[in-house]
Amino acid sequence: MAYSGDFSTANSPISAELREIPGEAFPRLTPEMMARIAPFGRRDQFDGGEYLYEVGDREVDFFIILNGSVDVFESDGHGGHAIVARHQVNQFTGELHHLSGRAVLVCAQTTASTSVIRLSRVSLLRLVNAEPDIGEIILRALILRRARLLEFAEGGTVIVGSCRSGNTVRIQTFLERNGYPYRCLDTDVDHDARAAMETFHADADSLPIVVLNGVRVLTQPTNHDLAEALGITERLNSSHAYDVVVVGAGPSGLAAAVYAASEGLNTLVIEAVGPGGQAGTSSRIENYLGFPMGISGQDLARRAQIQAQKFGARFAVAEAAWRLDCTCYPFGVHLEGGNVVFGRSVVVATGARYRRLDIPESQRFEGKGIHYAATSIEAQLCEGTEAVVVGGGNSAGQAAIFLSAKARHVHLLVRGDGLSDAMSDYLVGRIMQSPRITLHTRSEITSLAGEGYLSSVRWGQPGKEESEHTISNLFLMIGAVPNTDWLDGCVELDDRGFILTGYDHDGAPNGSLYATSVPGIFAVGDVRAKSVKRVASSVGEGSVVVHSIHGWLASNPVSRETADRSVAFEDASGNSL
Question: Where is each Cyclic nucleotide-binding domain found (predicted)?
Fold first, then answer.
């Protein structure tokens, strides 16, 4: 199918100010712009019917058409394809993966003898930053093209499984957080899903499966399996010591990546799931500066990632940090898959996670009715039913309001006497005025029940009669547990596990606000002790910490000994990326 017309639906992956103006996704550059672009690339010639690139190719060049034309299409793996666009004279190929070097999602094939200007990924980034007016046209087009793929995906990646399954939700979340187009066939209601199970010889015990290009089948894949199979992981140089290794891609980590990369520091971001962190689960943030209509946490994170990539930052996604070695320099960040990356400085931005319910049955319903995020994926599960949100902070308030648009009714449970102490006033007002949200103060959940999946929740006030409700979706947004287990005792923590900061470069107190007890290792955002748990403050910390990083790097210049140490360590460990 060819994509045309307006695609600004309620579920569009881009926000209102990025809605497409006709022609912006496939602009035609002026002759004057073409002349400025020419020095960044080289001319090349292709016969009709030649592929410029195919689905799955990495580090694909960027092509600008001088004459001839190029068709771009999705492949279904069986020789069929859905046409996405036809690029003609002074138009260009590409979408967001051209910025990162990840595996591309589409094929490009000449329709006739075609001459082009071709730019490598490095040359493209140099062009985007050196010629801002051209760069804006290119970046906007790449973003809009990805939005079209997300909105109208036909072939490519298909998930087959029950939408109530925690594994299915996890896979959907991983793909959405990484801006990867897919279709989901729900085996509970979709006849196409049952046909797909027969075609790929899948039984109920093997679900969910992920079908790639109609050919390859992944059975209950992990996030890392998916990332490898789809080419979302980037190929990194294990013998290279990065100036900055940022661990975590929430607001603070993304801000650190943008500012570090924009100031010329060689930057790598390590992220276990996908950009956004806890903020990525927020359906709409309305008090973030510069977005009067609000913005979803996922959209904000996606923009920040593109911004960081524009300046040359690299992202290692689905690569959870397992251990930090602070006994060597450069520091070694060991990843769960067994690889190691090295950094002359490390920014810990791993944030915090919500607490789990302290009742015996809760573990049984993890991924089977208990949720820790309220995005469009979870909201669909609540359509026409009642749901419960537990928590009194902004995240819980945003979730209650967002879910109330889909659910028949939302119950909001808090332990305290009300909401005003921990929640923004605009959220409190909306909750109190909504006929579809009921606030239950001084209330706690006492038991959960269900066979296979959650089906009922009991709650009440201490010392008073409890009530039981038919509930199949429970959202927990209570407390905060810092993600610091992987630090392996490297830095000083407070009694709750948050990272203590404020040390100078000698490891003594009263130095940089974001410096940990180990010189060269910094902490920002929710993982830092005494930080303000707000998106804006996290972004501020991530941007300001780069000043301290510059000071550290200036006092610890690169030497042959420093550069070779990571190589020697890599050789000795036998690991490579």
Answer: 25-145
